[in-house]
Structures are given as C-alpha cells and as structure tokens.
Amino acid sequence: MITKTNIKKRKISGPPRRNKKNDRNCCQPHNPTFTIQVKRKKQNFKNQKIKQEKKKRVANHKHKTMVAATLTSPSSQLLCSSSRSISQLSPLQQCLFGSKAIVSCPSNVNYSKKRHVGDGVKCMAVAAETEPKKKGGYQIQTLTNWLLKQEQEGVIDAELTIVLSSISLACKQIASLVQRASVSNLTGIQGAVNIQGEDQKKLDVVSNEVFSNCLRSSGRTGIIASEEEDVPVAVEESYSGNYIVVFDPLDGSSNIDAAVSTGSIFGIYSPNDECFASIEEDSTLDSAEQKCVVSVCQPGSNLLAAGYCMYSSSVIFVLTIGKGVFAFALDPMYGEFVLTQENVQIPKAGKIYSFNEGNYQLWDDKLKKYIDDLKDPGPSGKPYSARYIGSLVGDFHRTLLYGGIYGYPRDKKSKNGKLRLLYECAPMSFIVEQAGGKGSDGSARVLDIQPTEIHQRVPLYIGSVEEVEKLEKYLA
Fold first, then answer.
1. Three-class DSSP labels, 425-458
2. Cβ(355)–Cβ(385) under 8 Å?
3. Are 437 and 389 contained in the same domain?
4. How many structural domains are present in the chain?
5. What whole-number distance in Å separates Cα of residue 11 and Cα of residue 8?
6. What subcellular compartments does it reside in (predicted)?
7. Which of 111-115, 177-181, 236-240 has the lowest mean pLDDT?
8. Which domain holds residue 176?
9. Residue 271 has pLDDT above 80, yes or no
10. 81 burial class (0-12, 13-18, 19+ CB within 10 angstroms)?
11. Do 297 and 186 fall into the same domain?
12. DSSP 382
C-alpha cells in the first residue's frame, strides 16, 4: 500500500540522474514536446511525398493523352533529331519513340523498324496541327522570305527574285551612305553636269555606281537605264534573266546637305534578248544600240515590278509586283527589310496638296484656279493643307499614306514638266494604281504614255482618285 509518505519520498528521490555529458539524448524520452515535433516532421514528409507522387501521376496521364492524340492524328510531319536529344527523353517517351510513334521516313533515308535510322539520327512522327497558329508578336517576315514566298506561289520567277534582292541590297548601301554623308565628305557638288543639265552631287554619282554594280552582279539584268547615264547600258555578265531595270539612284539629291528625306526609284520590265550591245561614253548609237533604246522605251503598263526606297528617320522599302503594294522597314538590329504594311491602300480623298507654289506665276490660269479653290475654306470652313518637301519619294510616300494629291505641272519654264517619265512617273503611277489611286499627266493615264526617249519629261498629278479626277476637270 502506497502512503503519502512514500509518494513524497519518490518525488523527493526520483529516478537516478544521468550524466548529460555521457548521454546527450538522456532527456528526449522524457520530453513530450520533442516527441510531438518529431511526429509532425514525419507526417509533413509523408504528405510532401504523397503530393509529389500525385503530380507525377497527373503528368504521366497528360503525356499519355498527348501521345495518343499524336498517334491518331490524320496528318503528321517527320521530325528528325539527334541521338543526344533522344537520350534526354524520359523512359516512357523513349519507349513510345522506339515503337508506336515511329512512322515511315522519307524515301532517301534507309529506314527500318528499329530505332536507329542512320548514324546518330532518329525519326519521330509529330502531329501537324490542321489549323495554323496565329503569328506571335515577335514573329517577323523579311523581304527575302516574302520574295521566296511569292516565287513559290508562282507570282514571280526566280530570276526576278534575284533582281529585286539585288535592288534591296543597293538600297541598304545607299541608306548607309546617306546617313554618313556629312562625315564621309559626300555632301556638295561633284563638279559635273548630267544629261538633264543638272549639277551632280557627290552622292548622286556614288549612288549610281552602287545601284549599277548591284544589278550587274545579280547576273539577271540585261539592260539598265539611269537618270545619271546618257544612254541605256547593256550588261555583259548575264546568265539567264536579261531584265530591263530603270532607276533614279537618288531622288531629291538637292536635299542631301540639309539631311531631308531622299529616295531611290526603280522599275523592272520584261527581258529582251535582242539587246546585248555595250555602250561606251561619247559613242554614237548604231543599229544595235538603237534596239536597246527601243527596248527600254516601254509604256508603264508593261512594268513587272516597281518600287522606291525612302531614306528618312526610317528606311522604308515600298514594292509592288502587280499584286498590291507592300511596305518594308529596315531593321538596324538585323540589317533586313521587315514587312510592316500589307496591301497598302491610298484613301479615296484627302485634304493635302503637294505643289511647288514657288512656280505659281508660271502656271496656266486653269491650274491657278484649281490651287486657289483648294485654299478657299468654302462651306466646310476647312481649306486644304499644303505640304511640299521637294523630294518626289518623300512627298509621294506621305500622299500614299494620308491621301491627297501630288503634282509637278508644266509651266512656262518647263513646257513638259520636270519629272522623267521612264524612271520616275511610270513606276510611281504603277505603285499608286496598285494601291487604289491614280496617276495622270492632266488628261491621260501616265501608264499609257509611250516614251520616245530615255529621259523624256511629262507633267505628273498623282494621288487619291477623287483628287486627281477633280484636277482633270479643272484642266479640261
């Protein structure tokens, strides 16, 4: 029988004390708090392990579902990957890869049912989606890719693709020259006068050389005609194309020293196999050379492609191959023209007119009346706005985007106008018509005019359809 005295004695005496230095865990069996913490840690560890196993089961289930959809898809494409990539797959993926997922490989590959198709190469079928994915925000299309796509669709041939690529290369080089003109001592007058009687700028001469060299090196150009050349030049090194290319290497060169927008204009005509004459400076035209001139003097309606490149705050390359107008911007990071605008359409009407009103007193009365009416606010109270850069490319590009009309008429000083038909008016008219606009000389369609000489000049009124037709009524 336990008495109070015994209990007190046990409390006083208690169990024999242990030496903590000799037994570090002496207090653990007698500490209930410590025991609870250990149990909680074990339970948490078990819970984490259960969650991880559950995640693995869910992931495996999703993977099996994806593989099943891949194997049952009606269309598939062949994916070849290296053995290193295969070795990085999971055991389940390798198993599926080695058996059911393998389909027939191309005929030029020695394929068997085994996993190895060749040395270090394996083939795996991956389902191709029936619906194309939408382009992401970072996907870009370069001019080169765009041209190759047009070639694949049969819109242009391989030779024309090469010619257009050569022109884009020339534009990149000229853009670099324009940007560095002031530091490279390319500003100012060269000292010579071209066939039009205009003082040649240094950059005019250099740009013409760049354009000509790029077209010659393409091997697909037969004849080139430039604003800076007296007569057309037949290219000897031609492999198959023989395309006729007309161009103004640097339009608006009078603005170079002021760093105002300039540009290059070009047009491409069908090949001609009858002209292979090499024309030297200060030479007379014989019968063969006359054929070259006749071949180049084609109406704008025969153009296969036309475009321009504007050198401004951005370098913009605008091109048409007879299937709409497309705009590309030069990305300085990649050094490539990147598609920025598809199927550019000019507004049907606009409130901007672009004329050199410094020649107002030299115009005829009908044109003066037209300009005066544009300035009159009228019932709407909003007159037209005047915008004039002095560069055909810069003024035309603004008109193409915003609508309105650009004009360089004939006057008492220049009876036939100032702009050249072959390599300025015709290419620009081809572009504006592809964009839904109109190009006129005041009475006739520019693209219907038959050139009689290389540097023939004509009046030009180009822009929105309603604005050009309105002007024609005044001049009628």
1. HHHHHHHHHHCCCEEECCCCEHHHCCCCCCCCEC
2. no
3. yes
4. 3
5. 5
6. Plastid, Chloroplast
7. 111-115
8. 143-340
9. no
10. middle
11. yes
12. -
